[in-house]
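A.,

Following up on our hallway conversation. Structure tokens first:
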């Protein structure tokens, strides 16, 4: 393969490529600078550059690739937040199914009480997985549903309670109040709950995902991320930007409709796929 001396022009091209992958300017500059470190003027092939790029990206992603932590706590309460359309409800269904398959008992609370479709969707997942889904009348108080679900999970001796929440960002103050009320109510039962707050993000929204993390960090105590829709038009670079900027654990990625399409996040595979390196 032809080799060229690594120079500023090449680095600029690499940077543009990374920005085009949805990585954002700051992170693209950081990756490019890391690639250039001590290598200016050395002769490299396109394949070398891709491998270098993959290596630097994997290094950033390594720190955030962590499965959802499971605590010795019953019920472990997992609050799930995210905007409508991010794949939140589906993610809860898939996680519940996977935990059930791993021998854990799960209860789901359909806390997005204003969206009948979200409640129905969870009921379908629950039926399929054999997981009870607690619902409340449309538009009723999600916090009292969360309290009832907590009571039920305790009575059942359930390992996990997963709580779906509304994702209406049009009225942020209302949503903040709704989420903090859910937290206040479940803390009456367990002062340490929720034990995890998962933010579900749609990878196809690109750089907008960064804004969503900032917003939801103000609304709730986000402890980790799930990135959905990485099978479609998503360029994927936004994950690198998220890892670089926030350092929040990425617990899983969604790459399709099936239960098994919610997968643990693997930094090497991801970096190779993003840069086109043959693995």
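Then the amino acids I'd put at each of the 279 positions:
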């Amino acid at each position: 393969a032809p080799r060229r001396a690594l120079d500023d022009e090449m680095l600029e091209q690499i940077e543009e490529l990374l920005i085009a992958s949805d990585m954002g300017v700051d992170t693209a500059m950081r990756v490019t600078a890391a690639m250039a470190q001590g290598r200016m003027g050395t002769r490299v092939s396109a394949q070398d550059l891709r491998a270098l790029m993959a290596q630097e990206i994997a290094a950033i992603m390594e720190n955030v690739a962590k499965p959802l932590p499971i605590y010795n706590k019953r019920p472990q309460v997992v609050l799930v937040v995210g905007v409508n359309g991010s794949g939140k409800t589906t993610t809860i269904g898939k996680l519940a199914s996977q935990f059930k398959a791993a021998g854990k008992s799960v209860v789901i609370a359909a806390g997005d009480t204003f969206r009948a479709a979200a409640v129905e969707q969870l009921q379908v997942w629950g039926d399929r997985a054999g997981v009870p889904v607690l619902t409340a009348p449309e538009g009723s108080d999600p916090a009292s549903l969360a309290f009832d679900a907590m009571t039920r999970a305790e009575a059942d001796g359930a390992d996990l309670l997963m709580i779906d929440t509304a994702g209406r960002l049009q009225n942020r103050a209302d949503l903040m109040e709704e989420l903090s009320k859910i937290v206040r109510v479940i803390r009456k039962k367990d002062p340490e709950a929720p034990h995890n707050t998962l933010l579900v993000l749609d990878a196809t929204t690109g750089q907008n995902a960064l804004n969503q993390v900032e917003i939801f960090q103000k609304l709730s105590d986000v402890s980790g991320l799930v990135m959905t829709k990485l099978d479609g038009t998503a360029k994927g670079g936004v994950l690198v930007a998220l890892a670089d900027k926030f350092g929040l654990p990425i617990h899983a990625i969604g790459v399709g409709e099936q239960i098994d399409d919610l997968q643990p996040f693997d930094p090497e595979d991801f970096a190779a796929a993003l840069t086109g390196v043959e693995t």
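The domain at 4-62 is CATH 1.20.120.140 (Four Helix Bundle (Hemerythrin (Met), subunit A)). Curious whether your intuition agrees with the design.

B.
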